[in-house]
Amino acid sequence: MDLTEHHDLRSNALPWDAHADDLPPADTLPVRMVDVAICGAGITGAMLADRLSEQGLSVAMLDRRYPACGSTSASTALVLWEADVPLSHLAGRVGIDRAVRCWRRVHRAVRTLADHALHLPRAHMKARQSLYLDGTLLDADGLAREAALRAAHGFPSTFLSAEQVQQRFDIAPRPAIFSGDSYEVDPVGLTHDLLDQARDRGASLCWPVDVQTVSSADTHIQLTTDRGVVEARHAVLATGYERARLFLPEAFRLRSSYAIATAPGTAPLWRGPAMMWEASSSYLYARTDAEGRVIAGGGDEDFHDPDHRDRLIPTKAAEIAANLSRLVGRPVEPRETWAAMFGSSPDGLPAIGPSAAFDRLWLASGFGGNGVTFAALAAELLTASLTDLWDKDMDCFDPYRFGASRDAG
Ligand SMILES: Cc1cc2nc3c(=O)[nH]c(=O)nc-3n(C[C@H](O)[C@H](O)[C@H](O)COP(=O)(O)OP(=O)(O)OC[C@H]3O[C@@H](n4cnc5c(N)ncnc54)[C@H](O)[C@@H]3O)c2cc1C
Q: What torsion, rounded to 10 degrees, do the Cα atoms 46, 52, 55, 56 define?
């Protein structure tokens, strides 16, 4: 059995494809043992390599694709600390103390990411607010309770009535939670910037290299690839939605998602720079970018067959455009439309932590709508663990918290 699944992760041209020509150079496989081998050079692998190399660790990144050309290139890259499962729902599931601890840790990761990335040249990271509109998960009363719970625990969120939303943002009157500390980013530019920083500190970036197996020795991990063997004191599987089936429980599921981008110069379609999303399990969301495109997505489906997924692109793109148009009261013309594999977890939180099978083998899988934020979180948690400072919040994101079986969660 291959170490990780092989998937067609995305389709069609994407707004970020311009950067794909601007690839970092490929290094040869390291001949000496490195401190950390990272399987995967998407946003998660890049954030890990940046932080670990900053701490003076020797790092090798290995990817079977071009760097940043997996799911990272399909991302719409709203950087939010609010997870897909509302705080009030998570509290019902795991208790308020643990729910708040999880959310605080995610919130902290966004702020630390901003400290590290706001100055990076190709990341185009910009501070934004978010507007979380009513939906099938939370109606007006649910949003008001959610906002009060968040505020009581120190999160920067306020409830707005439908009339306040209409007046302030010039969109359809819908109740919402307005929050601060969010960002938009160019996901490919950010990944390339982080990879460059790590390479400047001596990290190697080896592609195309397919990691086929991992095995554990007393003092190290051995990774067998199609180009040779790499030895590392620790290894991290940052392979996104190409799951390492032997190590990642089935509660982390695959889906399909759809997105559109308008021509540059289309924005503003609503007043102010807030990003918008709905309190639904398959939600409409929208933001603008540095060139004035409006980027929107949604229409998630529970299957992940790529042919089925891609056949639906015209229908899904039209639906997203029509839903956004209804919300903002103006026509929305998609110029680019795409579909991609997506991942979800029962609590909307990622799988980050030690693998149950091998010592020295770690998982960093950002399932849920906050994959960019979860990449930053993985970098914080695993850098602490690999430099002997165990992070007290590690248990919140334990890959085995739903059990290890197919039906868990
Ligand atoms: C349509 C869409 C919209 C999204 N919107 C948002 C959003 O608004 N905000 C947000 O925060 N997140 C969003 N996400 C989620 C986020 O983009 C992803 O979670 C994130 O990009 C995943 O990054 P990654 O590095 O973990 O995975 P990837 O970018 O897929 O990188 C993993 C890499 O591992 C490599 N790999 C796998 N197996 C092997 C192997 N055996 N050997 C060598 N290499 C291997 C792959 O080639 C790949 O390059 C969105 C995702 C999609 C698809």
A: -100
Residues 165 and 289 in one domain: yes
Q: Enter the pTM of the model.
A: 0.97
pLDDT of residue 405: 46
248 CA → ligand 1 middle, Å? 15
Of the residues 190, 241, 242, 363, which should be mutated to test ligand 1's pocket, given the most ligand atoms within 8 Å of the CB? 242
For the chain, the domain total comes to 2
Q: Which residues line ligand 1 (CB under 6 A)?
A: 3-4, 9, 39-45, 62-65, 70-72, 74-79, 210-211, 238-240, 242, 257, 259, 297, 340, 342, 366, 369-373, 375
Q: How far apart are CA 223 and CA 155, in angstroms?
A: 42
Same domain, 159 and 259: yes
In a domain, 268, yes or no: yes
Residue 155, domain extent: 127-177+253-344
Q: What is the pLDDT of residues 222-272, one digit of tens each?
A: 999 999 999 999 999 999 999 998 899 999 999 999 999 999 999 999 999
In order of 19, 102, 130, 374, 379, the CA distances from 386 in angstroms are: 31, 21, 34, 18, 10
| Residue 117 resides in a domain | no
Write b or e for each residue in 199-218: b if 16 or more Cβ atoms lie within 10 A of its Cβ, otherwise e: bebebbbbbebbbeebeeee
**Residue having the nearest C-alpha atom to atom 26 of ligand 1:** 240
Q: Please name which of 150, 64, 105 lies closest in space to residue 374, comparing C-alpha atoms.
A: 105
Please indicate, yes or no, if residue 147 is contained in any of the structural domains.
yes
Residue nearest atom 51 of ligand 1, based on CA coordinates: 75
Band (pLDDT 50/70/90 cuts) for residue 19 is: low
Residue 308 and residue 258 in contact, taking contact as beta carbons nearer than 8 Å: no
Task: List the residue whose alpha carbon is closest to atom 25 of ligand 1.
Answer: 42
Dist. CA 33–CA 133, nearest whole Å:
50
What does the radius of gyration of the chain's CA atoms come to, in whole angstroms? 20
